[in-house]
Amino acid sequence: MLRSSTLILLVILQVSAMVLFRIWYLKANTCTSTISTNQKVHVLLLSSWRSGSSFLGQAFNQHPNVFYLMEPGWHLWTTMQKPGMRSMKMALRDLMRNLFLCDFSVMDSYLPDQRNISSLFMWSHSRALCSPPVCSLTPRDQFSNQTLCDKKCDSRGLEKVQEACTTYSHVVLKEVRFFELESLYPLFQDPSLDLRIIHLIRDPRAVERSREESINSFLKDSAIVLEQKSIPRVLQEICRSHVHIYKKATVNAPPFLTGRYRMVRFEDLVRNPLEEMAALYEFAGLEMTPLLGDWIYTLTHGKLPSRDATFKVTSRDASYVSQAWRNELLHGKVRRIQQVCEEAMAVIGYRAADSEEQQKNISVDLLVPRNSSQFRW
Ligand SMILES: *[C@@H]1O[C@H](CO)[C@@H](O)[C@H](O)[C@H]1NC(C)=O
Ligand SMILES: *[C@@H]1O[C@H](CO)[C@@H](O)[C@H](O)[C@H]1NC(C)=O
Ligand SMILES: *[C@@H]1O[C@H](CO)[C@@H](O)[C@H](O)[C@H]1NC(C)=O
Ligand SMILES: *[C@@H]1O[C@H](CO)[C@@H](O)[C@H](O)[C@H]1NC(C)=O
User: Fold this and answer.
1) pLDDT tens-digit map of 135-159
2) How many domains does the chain contain in total?
3) 177-191 average pLDDT score
4) Nearest protein CA to atom 7 of ligand 3, as residue
5) Which atom of ligand 3 is nearest to 357's Cα?
6) Which of 155, 239, 335, 365 has minimal CB crowding within 10 Å?
7) d(CA 62, CA 292)
8) 39 in contact with ligand 3, CB cutoff 6 A
9) Which domain holds residue 207?
């Protein structure tokens, strides 16, 4: 027979186990519980202008587990007096580190004292800034409406933004102003971060065509970043930096980069959006949901027009659009781009069009197929 004190002990143990389980269960299921830093995944989407990074960014942004910020480095570029590349790199790295850790005090250097959420660059593009605890507008598992968010979700201070950041398992930042990888090495070795990089590359000929479409916004951008170089020089610089980053991460890469870098070509993304996105989510430790699957499909196949195409994801048939340069660029220009980007095109897998006929004949595939297994490093 059990002694009564043992029985009481057993009852106490069972009750406390139930209570603990209940607390754990509630914590796991309330969206506003804090997720400790060492359980978080930090993802950097690395790209360059006009490379389809809006699409990739949105695909992460709309994921319910993701706190996403678009180009936080913009604040740095526009605030610093002398935008020399060297000091920028370090400042940008430190800015990103703090944001990954949900420390928004780092914004003190770049924002006025009287700051609102709307002081953050492209804030209303971030679904998390239109959702609780920042704003009641968008439930966390739904897609946000930027227009409504713009109207309803601004408020004073960044406390709510910081609080929101701590409740997500993933912090994703997008940057289009990174031209090398080495300055990020300390972040890979930082035990408080679990950093993964997705490097998005697009055919430089398509980049040029897209740039021509929106020349004003690009010129303003490139003028700061590339210190007033001419357009072929800009493309050359972009191509060179893609190769540099890709090689650093894949050829004799330092051990801390193992499994933390993944390159994706925009063309593969639009040809096979669901598979490619599912693979990228998996790389980041996220799950594809049916809702996201539908959304990605509509975005890449749908026909929603867009008023201001410059910074928005446009929903024309993305796979077709990714080939539009072949009809719209003069062959002479295509040849010049192929010259300045020769190495990048060979390394990343874009074939040169040797004649105007070849360029305009869409049945000639200028994309070198890649095995998806090749992407895993
Ligand atoms: C966003 O909301 C506005 C105002 O209600 C509406 O007109 C617009 O169609 C919505 N946009 C989307 C993409 O749902
Ligand atoms: C910040 O928001 C307040 C209202 O909440 C508004 O009065 C003020 O003008 C805003 N400031 C800026 C810089 O947008
Ligand atoms: C386009 O390329 C395909 C495949 O190389 C070829 O069979 C076809 O004759 C070409 N069409 C024209 C109009 O050159
Ligand atoms: C791609 O994979 C196939 C089989 O899965 C293999 O035969 C082929 O050699 C691979 N190609 C490259 C470029 O690795």
Assistant:
1) 999 999 999 999 999 999 999 999 9
2) 1
3) 92
4) 363
5) 14
6) 365
7) 8
8) no
9) 39-102+166-360
Q: CA nearest 192: which of 35, 41, 66, 37?
A: 37
Helix/strand/coil for 66: strand
**Dihedral sign, Cα of residue 90, residue 96, residue 99, residue 101:** negative
Q: Which protein residues touch ligand 2 with a CB less than 6 Å away?
A: 114, 116, 118, 155-156
Any ligand 3 atom below 6 A from CB of 365: no
The full DSSP string for 214-244 is: THHHHHHHHHHHTTS--HHHHHHHHHHHHHH
Q: Nearest ligand to the C-alpha of residue 142?
A: 1
Which positions ≥6 away from 2 have C-beta within 8 Å? 10
Say which residue, 126 or 34, is predicted with more confidence. Answer: 126
Confidence of residue 311 (pLDDT cuts 50, 70, 90): very low
Distance of CA 297 from the midpoint of ligand 1 (Å): 19
pLDDT at 230: 61
pLDDT at 15 over 80: no
Here the CATH number for the domain that contains residue 285 is 3.40.50.300
Does any domain span residue 141? Answer: no
